[in-house]
Design a protein that fits this description.
- With 78 residues, the protein is mostly beta strands.
- It has one domain (15-78).
- The chain is 5% helix and 23% strand.
- It has a 4-stranded antiparallel beta sheet.
- A hairpin with a 2-residue loop joins strand 3 (53-55) and strand 4 (58-62).
- It is elongated.
- The model has no long low-confidence stretch (mean pLDDT 85).
């Protein structure tokens, strides 16, 4: 039957990727209360196929919802 033999179509469109290795991410303040932004910011070591990330110097895998929305303009000099 055709529905069981379907292969993933790689040209089906863009894949949503929220993170890449070596990016900086910041945990939401609700997850780490009492810590400043610098203490909640970590660099991504690896991105898993399921969308979770592994961080340098922080244990376990983490999902997108644990982090603040990424603001690419935040670190630009005014």
């Amino acid at each position: 039957m055709g529905i069981f033999n379907r292969r993933k179509n790689e040209s089906a469109g863009p894949v949503y990727v929220w993170a890449r290795p070596e990016m900086m991410v910041t945990f939401r303040a609700e997850i780490m209360p009492g810590r400043g932004r610098e203490e909640r910011t970590f660099r991504i070591k690896d991105v898993k196929p399921n969308g979770r990330v592994v961080l340098y110097d922080f244990p376990d895998e983490h999902r997108e919802g644990e982090f603040e929305k990424i603001n690419f303009l935040r670190d630009l000099a005014k």
